[in-house]
């Protein structure tokens, strides 16, 4: 599957904004990641830096734009597939960047920072609202969400991103994370779950720069 642009949405769940002490946005907060940050959650061990502070997991629904987008497109018309993903964040780096008023790219776009599961056929907006998604860390649930809790629903995100940047076939959207974000640790295993179905998994390997 070809992936072009990676758009991500910040603070799209009110409880997540609150847990980080952030204000709830009045319009979508959009940032992007380079395609080199993509990594497939297919059960493998994924390496991450151990010398840049905490790395937080942020579980998200990922939408795949499979058809041309227009200003009045509906979600079901343009989204052909979906996946689950993790928007990983170097939290200490991000905090420092925010204090300086600098862009977040160093905290959000590092290698393997955009984890994704296998994609499957998009069941429609209504069906998505009937299913919860969750993240398990070593068998324990650490995040759980439902699209009904989003501040900006899929349609608003697609229209806003298309208006501001343009959306085309092959683009993906990480649609925001519910509350429960936290640091990953060396040796932990994560499972990304849609309803009761495990859609992807991976194991964390942390190492310092001199060991990589």
Order of helices and strands: EHEEEEEHEEHHEEHEEHEEEE
**Poorly predicted tracts of residues:** none
Q: How far is the N terminus from the C terminus?
A: 29 Å
User: Oligomeric state of the chains?
Assistant: single chain
Mean pLDDT: 94
Q: Choose one word for the global shape.
A: globular
Largest sheet: 8 strands, mixed
The helix/strand class is alpha+beta
Strand content: 35-45%
**Helix content percent band:** 10-25%
The total count of strands amounts to 16
The value of Rg in angstroms is: 16 Å
Total helices: the number is 6
Overview of the molecule:
The chain is an alpha+beta fold. It has six helices and 16 strands. Strands 1, 2, 3, 6, 7, 9, 10 and 13 form an eight-stranded mixed beta sheet that branches. Strand 11 and strand 12 form a beta hairpin. The longest helix is centred in the C-terminal third of the chain and has 11 residues, at 154-164. The protein starts with 5 loop residues before the first strand and ends in a 5-residue tail after the last strand.
Notable characteristics:
alpha+beta; 212 residues; globular; 38% strand
Q: What's the short story on this structure?
A:
The protein has 212 residues and is an alpha+beta fold. It has 6 helices and 16 strands. It is globular and about 50 Å long.
């Amino acid at each position: 599957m070809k992936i072009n642009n990676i758009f991500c949405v910040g603070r799209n769940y009110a409880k997540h904004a609150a847990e980080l002490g952030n204000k709830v946005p009045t319009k979508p907060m959009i940032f992007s990641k380079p395609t080199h940050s993509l990594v497939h959650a297919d059960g493998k061990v994924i390496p991450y830096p151990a010398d840049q502070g905490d790395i937080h997991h942020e579980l998200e629904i990922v939408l795949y734009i499979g058809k041309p987008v227009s200003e009045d497109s509906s979600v079901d018309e343009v989204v052909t597939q979906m996946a689950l993903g993790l928007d990983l964040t170097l939290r200490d780096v991000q905090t420092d960047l925010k204090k300086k008023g600098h862009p977040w790219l160093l905290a959000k776009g590092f290698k393997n920072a955009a984890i994704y599961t296998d994609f499957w056929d998009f069941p429609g907006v209504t069906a998505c609202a009937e299913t919860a998604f969750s993240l398990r860390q070593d068998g324990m649930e650490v995040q759980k969400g439902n699209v009904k809790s989003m501040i900006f629903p899929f349609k608003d995100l697609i229209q806003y991103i298309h208006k501001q940047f343009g959306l085309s076939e092959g683009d993906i959207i990480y649609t925001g994370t519910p509350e429960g974000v936290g640091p990953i640790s060396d040796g932990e295993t994560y499972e990304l779950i849609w309803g009761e179905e495990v859609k992807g998994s991976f194991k964390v390997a942390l190492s310092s720069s001199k060991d990589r």
